[in-house]
Design brief:
The chain is mainly beta. 8% of the residues lie in helices and 27% in strands. The protein is built from 2 helices and 10 strands. The strands form 3 sheets. It has a 4-stranded mixed beta sheet with strand order 1-2-10-7, with no helix packed on it. A 3-stranded antiparallel beta sheet has the order 3-9-8, with no helix packed on it. The radius of gyration is 16 Å and the shape is globular. The chain binds zinc ion. Zinc ion binds next to loops.
Length: 153
């Protein structure tokens, strides 16, 4: 068995929040960077594990693959969980064969923080109050002030 590929990024403190992932080698657009790994749950299991408490801060380690499967990166997750949200992302998450992968959206240079748009969707309307519970401080010129997705209604 060959040793695993070394990660193309380091995890260290981020100006956005907490820890972030920073490129340590250049990655052309389309590079598959890392799997977004974690325990696979049904939406009902995820809801039971993380009841939505009004006014509480959200947990950003859940990722829905589709209507049937949610990945919880806080259990058996990997370094992909350190990627922060940005409203001006350089990465995207793609679903392939029911697995999640972080891919480069455009060419990434050494030292760039790897970020993707979390685009959270709530059951409730994305009111100004809801947006304040899910704030964004990514610093992008195009920052929409929240990690919630744009949503009609
Ligand atoms: Zn932002």
């Amino acid at each position: 068995m060959s040793p695993p590929e070394p990660l193309p990024f380091d995890v260290r403190p981020s100006p956005i929040q907490g820890l972030g992932a920073f490129a340590i080698r250049p990655m052309p657009a389309g590079t598959r960077i890392i799997e977004y790994a974690g325990e696979r749950l049904t939406p009902a299991q995820a809801d039971a594990r993380y009841p939505d408490v009004a006014g509480a801060r959200h947990h950003t380690f859940l990722f829905a693959i589709d209507d049937d499967v949610v990945v919880d990166a806080s259990v058996n997750g990997n370094e992909a969980r350190f990627l922060n949200h940005s409203c001006a992302p350089n990465c995207d998450v793609v679903v392939d064969e029911k697995r999640l992968w972080i891919e480069a959206l455009h060419d990434i240079e050494v030292g760039e923080e790897l970020v993707y748009d979390y685009a959270f969707v709530l059951e409730e309307r994305h009111t100004p109050a809801a947006k304040r519970r899910y704030p964004c401080a990514c610093g992008a010129i195009t920052c929409r002030g929240t990690i919630l997705a744009r949503k009609r209604g």
